[in-house]
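Reviewer 2 asked us to include a model.

Predict the structure of this chain.
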Amino acid sequence: MWELTKSFRFDAAHTLKRSIDTASSKRVHGHSYRAEVTLRGEPDPETGMVIDFGLLERTLAEARGALDHHMLDDVPGLGPATMENLAAWIWRRLAPVTKGLVKVAVFRDSQDESVTYRGP
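Predicted model (structure tokens):
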């Protein structure tokens, strides 16, 4: 069994209602994010690949395009723009078209924070 991971980056703005640091979170602010998508499977005997990285890149580009340089508060189906919701949203976007999806992780490297979602 093989696992492969592909990352993509995006920058986005949002607001957030929270119980601490409320003033700065309520204002529009932005972050740089990195998402990692992990697939598991056996290589195809003909191609030798679990998935063609070019095909995976195209699929990820669609998700990235819906997030990069957008106001996350306005992304349909996201809900409050938390890292948890971002990971679940990316999963829901990729799962129907990405065989073997096992994990989506979202990172804010500048804050040394990450969230991992392993699906429903």
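The radius of gyration is 15 Å. The chain is about 25% helix and 30% strand. We have added this to the supplementary material.
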